[in-house]
Every structure is written in structure tokens, then in C-alpha cells.
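Here's what a typical entry looks like (Acetyltransferase):
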Amino acid sequence: MCSLWISPSLTLTGQLVRLEPLTLDHVDALREAVRDGELHTAWWTSTPSPDAMAADIRNKLALRDAGSMVPFACIRLVDGVTVGVTTYYDLSPEVPRLEIGYTWSRASSHGTGTNPDSKLLLLEYAFEELGCQRVGIRTKWSNHQSRAAIERLGLKRDGILRSYARLRNGVVDDAVLYSALSTEWPAIKAGLTTRVNRHVTHAARDAAQ
């Protein structure tokens, strides 16, 4: 069963963030986080609204209990602020492979290094602890910000699934598939580590001023 492959109590700690098991205790903090930038109002995203946050978490916990998802709350280490949510899903231990997704982060955290640190933690655990051969990330064609962020991580575009998902405004959109292979992981890790270290250095310099 997939839930035995990855412990639902898994916690990963990096230099900027901690990924801890998502629970209903995170509801209020995540409602506040999604209001930072009003992320849920963007037509190209499926980010839950504040009113739908509890239901969204319950759905992810049900998928966790079924062994098909491992959801995390992302916590910023410097101040304990809840940044957002991310998950492992599409778990296939027989390959092994998985996907990282259902990710969103408060707008004020964009460009601060929390996303690359989070991805570094997730990719590192997947490749080095789980022995994954492939880790995938997908996004919608219309979400240009997400596509650019994934490409900056160093993942390669596998292809496009046309007319794959219907957006909240009713428009049918394509899905863009990206992946990293175990043979590519050392170079991706080096690049992500450099990015995270740069943000840590800048944060330390700002704190000293």
C-alpha cells in the first residue's frame, strides 16, 4: 500500500522551510496565507478559497488515508509563518516514481527562496531516500508563472496533454508535464542548493542591517 511507502507523518526540514504533515489544525493559518495575494481568485489556478480551505484539507487527508497522497503544510522557519501547501501524489512505488503537486504559496513568499527550498527537500527525499527513478510536476498551460518556476528548478518538459482540465472560469486548458530523472538529480540538486544558499545569505545580510 502506498501509505506504507511514504510515512504520512514525514517531516522535512531545510534551511528556509519545514514541510510538516498537513492537518485541520492548519486551516486558519492557510486561510490567512491564501488571502495574501488573493491567490484563489486567479482564473488559471485551483487554489482553494478561504471558505473552502477546510474541505480542501479534508479531501487531501482522505487521499492520504487511501494511500494516494502525502500532503504537507509549508512553514517558514524564520518566523513560523505558514506559507502554503504541497503534496506527493500519483505514488507508484513499484517503479518507483511520484509527482509533486497541488502546490501553492502565499504571494509575499514568492521570490524569497521558500519554493526552491521546498522543492529541494521533496526531490532530495524522493531520489535519495525513496530511490525514485522519476519525479514529475505538472501545471496548466495558462499558468505562465508556474511553468517558468518549474523550468527554473531544472526539470525538463515531457509534453502537453491537450484539453486536459477545465478551469474555474469554464475554459478548457492544456496540462504541461515536466519531470526529473534520477540521472539528472545531481545537477538539479547543485542548482537548487546554490539558489537556496543565495537566499539564506541575503536573509542573513538583511537581518544584520
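The mean pLDDT is 93.

More examples are in the samples folder.
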